[in-house]
Amino acid sequence: MAVLIPAMSACAGRMTPGERRIAERLEGKLDEDYMLWYDVPVGPKQTHPDFVIIHPRRGILILEAKDWLLDTIQEASRETWTIFADNRVKSVVNPAMQVRHCAIQVVNALERDAELILADGPHRGKLAFPWGSGVVFTNITRKQFEQAGLDQAIEPHLVICKDEMLESAEPEAFQQRLWNMFPHAFGKAISVPQLERVRWIMFPQVRVPVQGSLLSEDPQELPSIMRVMDIQQEQLARSLGEGHRVIHGVAGSGKTMILGYRAELLANAHAIRPILVLCYNEPLAVKLTALFAAKGLTDRVHVRNFHKWCRQQLVAYGQPIPPQGPGMFDQMVHNVIRGVDRKQIPSGQYQAVMVDEGHDFQPEWLKLVTQMVDPETNSLLILYDSAQDIYGKSRARGFSFKSVGIQAAGRTTILKINYRNTKQILQTANRVAAEFLQPDMQDDDGVPLVQPLSCGREGPEPLIVRVPTPSQEPTTIAGLLSAAHQEGHAWGDMAILCRDHSTMDQCARSLSHRRLPHHVRHRSGDFDPLANTIKVMTMHASKGLEFPVVAIAGVGRMPHGGEEPADEAKLFYVAATRATHKLIVAVSGDGAFANALV
Q: How far apart are CA 231 and CA 220, in angstroms?
């Protein structure tokens, strides 16, 4: 069975009856290695063909569907057709020409990429794999098509008719009709790297920003590395409907990427009210703000750290702001909740609310933000991963989504595959945390603690360096990061993650001694994701971020005094899984985690 994007349940409402029948036939009669897109914007001009089909060995096919009856067509030529529709006669482009023009736009864009064209031979410079286009007449039989002389206006092999797409049609015969639409058989199979490049060019919405590339790309230049969502991620992102949705995914499964896609989609749909994106970690909020700013969405997508948002609500609606000191943040939240309850702070302020890393939110916080959704849209998205609950906000959950107003039953999607980390990095993280990440059904929402599965991406073995004393960890790390820079890694690709502020300051001194550019994240607002500097921060502050090169300090003294081993193991897991390519761990001492690593 082929993969349809968006899922049938998400797009059936906007399909015509004929389009729905085509979608069902394509989905049911093509094998699982076929990929299908329905009514998705394609290519640089973002045209909307009815169906796009990609198969690694067959190539790319674009289809136009017409639900016309035979008597709808008044006259047909190679260039234009006269039809009677919407109670009037009108002239339209020959549907075969229409869909071919769309296909040629796509092919021209693909041929700009040197990796996708033939390097030599008689077809040098042309696309390295087959492509074609065709028309499906959902209400006209082949006999009617021929008797009406429509075969003089469209080549018969470029058409599938009503009686050729019945549920009883043999899959092989149906597939053959599709591949008869290809004008040329030259070319070869699409490789996996080529397929990613094809999707990057054809579907810009699924592009994954490469570290350090938050600024808008030059449209005249194609990057050497093109990362895109995997098919499951894309199908989920394009299929998210209205209402309350929960995505429960492991670290590195693309939750934040899907949130970004969803926010951009809603923001570009002529939203009357802004979209609110909330997260607990302030550095993550800064990174997301930069991402949406690069897309020109700052006015329509408001990204806030939760407590900063609470303070802004108090200021905007004249509510009391608690003084600095212990308990200030809790009191701020309480004042907002009270203001909403008294209708002094309005509910329903946002077209949609999205919560990244909802496992960091206390139940009363979730109940509060749920009330901020415009009831007409009822659009709420919660991203969750119990394995990354490192603040104890929802320890053992102790509540259900339903109890805080989140209608999650039957609307939870689980993402189990970690795409961020190499297999070697994930294995190292699990050496400490695996026993605390066992699958476990936690509550009546059906939200489990999911053990991550590696996508199998290979990389260098993490460098676990045993040093005699804690004071030598920062010096060792500084030397290894300097060497990584000599290997070609930019300073902005690196981070040092520390268990506590004291270790963080020691690392900063070692970097200063070597004159390595760095920035220490001491407090809120003190983080610039675009700066070409080594980021030095606590393990807690790193959550939600990622870097090609990550060094970890202070592991030898974990579990930290007085902390639960399970919480500390999760904290190490979070820190280690920030690395996308290279992981360095300096270990001193004889703590339990040190012994597990060395």
A: 27
